[in-house]
Specification:
The complex is a heterodimer of chains A (221) and B (213).
Chain A (H helix, E strand, L loop, with lengths): L1 H8 L1 H35 L2 H15 L3 H11 L9 H27 L3 H8 L4 H16 L1 H15 L10 H12 L2 H32 L6
Helix pairs in contact in A: 2-3, 2-5, 2-8, 2-9, 3-5, 4-5, 5-8, 6-7, 8-10, 9-10
Chain B lengths: L2 H38 L2 H16 L2 H11 L9 H26 L3 H9 L4 H31 L13 H10 L3 H33 L1
The chains are: A mainly alpha (221), B mainly alpha (213).
């Protein structure tokens, strides 16, 4: 199997591609998570105009393909005088896009929350910020665990789009190897396997966390 | 952007639309077939389909499109790029649709089946007259949601050279050296297409809730 030997010789490219994908995914998901929580806070406590504009942005993002946003940041913005490299543009678009999706998930869960706890917190003299951090956030996060895992897998898959704007991640690594050695089958099998492994890992982690949460009785918090 | 640029943009939108529509139609039907086979619980086929669903849900569309387009010729199968694009999108969406249909199966109340059996209905008649119509209504919101996900993922086919609504912006920018306007216009076109689907999803949800309640 000389083809597999070539793949093994070129493992450096795959390892750096995997590193890039993982860095994008990890940094992007953390940034978008924070953005999602922040947006939820503004939806909770912001003025009417702010709320309206946040909802408008969320609805716009929901109808936009991820690649168009990445194109806009990488190809479109230089025309307006803002230039960044592919990795930064990819990371920013990933965070913005998935941040709004996270907020949409949290908003859906927040709507279903019982208002009793919030009223109790208010009666106990909690400030709005304290109510948010101590009551709303734990409730919302623990309930949305399966949806968060799902969104993380979508986020991982979206990093593959960034090879189109020349970020050197797994798909780009596979593509460069196949174009040099003409072994598309092996190169892409490796790439797909890598993606599969990451997403199975995400699923397992979310399953374990969900079990832990249910064991400790936090899911009905 | 001149008249020619606008025409190119609309042509790209049409390419995206027809490729997505073909994939959606195939994906919904294939998903139903996969769900039916999995519900029959045939020993080995069931595991294979389970692995397929897990695989297709984890594979990014870009990687899948490149994989299909580049590695099939090494088996001696030469694929047209539009055909590869449809194959790629269909493979991906079928797996998601199969899960949606399976969910509808699993959540179906058994009382109706017992009632149908008590009336002496055959299984095929029961499925066609009672189970299937309700399954369609129940899973329609999720199916429409998956359709909008498919269209959001469809720019992936640009990577194998299909001139869709995303790639066409590059072409226009290559002539005018002004990428911002075509990208924004493409974004607005996507918003219109997917916005219609989201409205449809909300309508389907209301209908499903009405029937469930």
């Amino acid at each position: 199997m000389t083809e597999w030997e070539i793949i093994w010789q070129q493992r450096e490219i795959f390892i750096s591609g995997f590193g890039n994908t993982f860095a994008l995914f990890f940094a992007g998901s953390i940034a978008s998570f924070i953005l999602g929580v922040t947006l939820l806070y503004t939806l909770e406590n912001g003025s009417k105009g702010v709320k309206g504009s946040v909802i408008l942005v969320i609805n716009m993002m929901r109808t936009l393909p991820f690649l168009i946003l990445a194109y806009l940041l990488y190809y479109g913005l230089p025309q307006a005088g803002i230039r960044m490299d592919a990795f930064t543009a990819g990371l920013i678009s990933l965070s913005l896009y998935h941040g709004t999706y996270f907020c949409e998930i949290f908003r859906g869960i927040r709507k279903g929350l019982d208002s009793g706890q919030m009223e109790a917190a208010q009666a106990c003299g909690f400030s709005r910020f304290k109510t948010f951090t101590r009551i709303i956030i734990p409730n919302v996060l623990l309930r949305s665990l399966p949806l968060i895992a799902n969104q993380l897998i979508i986020c991982l898959k979206d990093t593959a789009f960034l090879c189109i704007i020349t970020v050197g991640e797994i798909t780009a690594a596979a593509n460069s190897i196949q174009s040099t050695y003409f072994i598309p089958l092996n190169a892409f099998i490796v790439a797909i396997a890598l993606y599969w492994i990451i997403s199975i890992a995400i699923e397992q982690v979310s399953k374990i966390t969900l079990n832990k949460v249910q064991d400790r009785g936090l899911s009905h918090a | 952007m001149d008249y020619y640029g606008w025409m190119q943009l609309l042509q790209g939108a049409w390419t995206t639309a027809w490729i997505s529509m073909v994939s959606i139609a195939l994906g919904v039907v294939i998903g139903l077939v996969i769900a039916l086979i999995r519900m029959a619980k045939l020993p080995i086929i069931d595991q294979i389909l389970g692995v397929y669903v897990s695989w297709a849900r984890a594979t990014p569309l870009v990687t899948l499109a490149l994989f299909i387009f580049l590695s099939f010729p090494s088996f001696g199968i030469n694929l047209d790029k539009h055909f590869s694009a449809i194959l790629c999108l269909t493979l991906n969406t079928s797996a998601f649709n199969a899960e949606i249909w399976r969910n509808a199966f699993l959540n179906f109340s058994s009382g109706q089946k017992e009632a149908a059996e008590a009336l002496g209905m055959r299984r095929m008649t029961y499925f066609r007259r009672i189970m299937f119509p309700q399954m369609v209504v129940m899973s329609l919101p999720a199916l429409v949601n998956e359709m909008s996900f498919l269209i959001k993922g469809s720019p992936a086919i640009a990577v194998i050279g299909v001139v869709d609504l995303t790639r066409v912006t590059n072409r226009i920018a290559a002539v005018t050296y002004e990428p911002l306007l075509p990208i924004l216009c493409a974004g607005i076109l996507y918003m219109c297409i997917i916005g219609v689907l989201i409205k449809l999803q909300q309508m389907a949800e209301r209908k499903a809730n009405y029937l469930a309640g």
